Amino acid sequence: MSQRISFKVHGTVQGVNFRSFTQKKASAYGLTGWVSNTSNDKVIGEAQGDGEAVKKLLKDLNKGPSAAHVVKVEKEELDVKEGEKAFSVR
User: Active site residue: 17, 37, 62, 90, which one?
Assistant: First the structure.
């Protein structure tokens, strides 16, 4: 069953290829959505797809790429969006 979440990642997550890492993982899992840096040194985004795939992505977000240091990942359930085709970096 499809689900959509929003996420906010805290820690050393900018300047370490976190957005590219997230896009690659999400695309590999067949998820759609987006990821973006914030002005206060966090990474935010939304991901949609199969519930198990979303769980895998959240696990990856908690680790991040090797240069990242993730302190916390917040997530929130959202309504599913129709018509989204890919996972993009904003």
Answer: 37
pTM for this prediction: 0.95
Per-residue pLDDT of the chain (90 residues; tens, 9 = 90+): 899 999 999 999 999 999 999 999 999 999 999 999 999 999 999 999 999 999 999 999 999 999 999 999 999 999 999 999 999 999
Residue 19 is among the residues annotated as catalytic for this protein: yes
Active site residue 90: no
Q: Can you give the length of the chain in residues?
A: 90
d(CA 39, CA 83): 29
Beta strands in the chain (DSSP E): 2-12, 32-37, 43-50, 69-78, 87-89
Find residue 77's DSSP bridge partners.
Answer: 5
